[in-house]
Amino acid sequence: MRRVVIAGAATAGLSAARALRQAGFDGRIQLVDSEPASPYRRPEVSKGILEGRIDETTIRTPWPDDLGLELVTASLRHVDLGARTVVADAVTLPYDGLVVATGSVARPSPFQQLGNVFSLRSLDDGMRMHQALAGAQRLVLIGGGFIGLEVAAVARKLGLHVTVVEAAEVPLGHALGADFGEHLAALHRDRGVKILCGRMVSGIHGAGTVESVSLADGTHLPADIVLVSIGSVPAVGWLASSGLDTARGVPCDRTCAVRGTTDVVAAGDVAHWYNPLYQRHVRVEHWTNAIEQGTYAARRLLGKHDPEGFASAPYFWSDQYGMRLQSVGSTTGYDETEILSRNGEKLLVAYGRQGKLICVAGLDTGTTVMSYRRLVSEQATMDAVRTKAREKEDTVHS
Ligand SMILES: Cc1cc2nc3c(=O)[nH]c(=O)nc-3n(C[C@H](O)[C@H](O)[C@H](O)COP(=O)(O)OP(=O)(O)OC[C@H]3O[C@@H](n4cnc5c(N)ncnc54)[C@H](O)[C@@H]3O)c2cc1C
What we know:
Radius of gyration: 22 Å
CATH class of the largest domain: Alpha Beta
CATH architecture of the largest domain: 3-Layer(bba) Sandwich
Shape: globular
CATH superfamily of the largest domain: FAD/NAD(P)-binding domain
Helix content: 25-40%
Strand content: 25-35%
Number of strands: 26
Oligomer: single chain
Structural class: alpha/beta
Bound molecules: flavin-adenine dinucleotide
């Protein structure tokens, strides 16, 4: 293998490039990306950039000059898996190995496009919305997911009236369960955010610029700025003619090899891989996963990977009101929860399935959530988790 093309020069793509070099690959590495500003710390888009706490220069991560990488700024159009070529605008790039790391894009808005209606994915989105927030008073957030709630916290800090409209009965209930979701809803309500759950948006209205949001139950919410935050979809448009079924992302086996190939791997938000830990295909939109999977996928290309597969208990964080919400693992299919500790707004919860630990989530609990990662990866018994939590309490109180 002498020539590797990496599609997407962001978190997963650069992690793969770094890992290729660390594993001794001295051939040509070309990274292709359409976003000229890449790479940057995308999580800061809904935090420091939106708030105006950090600027364009501080969000950027320096290009790793020491790795001898080539950056091709172009839009990926097509891949021919048989001929081993990638087409990006007018350029055709042959490869011996290909890393697909094109991430995800905001789910397209089903509503009318008007001025001051945003989606939040790129640095440019974050900077434009920051400017618009400065002249606005009433923000309506469509979707109470992680990004929606982060934006609610930032907008309150900036002094706006904030309303969150969420279709589910509890914000983040699907990800963290009803109790944790209620805890977060209370956190926001206590700081003046209006949270409307179990409500559907029917339209966005205005003449040129947004003026209101209507709900299916007839409610009209005045708004001079709106964020449509209804999830993301894998960035797979350029793979449409590849012959791959990309409905759920790029289909991969347990080793991140793209189905039917040995010279193509995928990593990060775009990869739909068989996670041996959960024994099912998953797609994970977390920063840390993009780094870890990028590294694994690169080693897979070189045949230097763990043959058991990329078994991962994904880690996620979100910052709201100066507190860090974290989770490790996946709550999918949980049948029991255990509150490991609760102190004011601080909360630590374990999720179990059939007596085994599958996830730990915490709010404002420092490094505690991460300290459970090994137990989550080992699918320890819930009893072992209770014991560890008690020991920790004893240490704190003795
Ligand atoms: C606003 C926001 C806040 C977030 N906050 C957190 C957080 O607090 N914690 C956390 O764990 N995760 C967070 N995430 C998720 C995290 O940022 C992603 O999981 C991570 O960036 C995924 O990295 P990636 O390399 O797979 O994809 P991306 O970061 O999406 O990068 C993909 C790259 O591919 C390029 N690309 C895509 N299609 C094409 C094409 N056709 N042609 C050329 N180039 C293309 C893009 O320009 C992009 O540079 C957040 C995400 C967003 C949007």
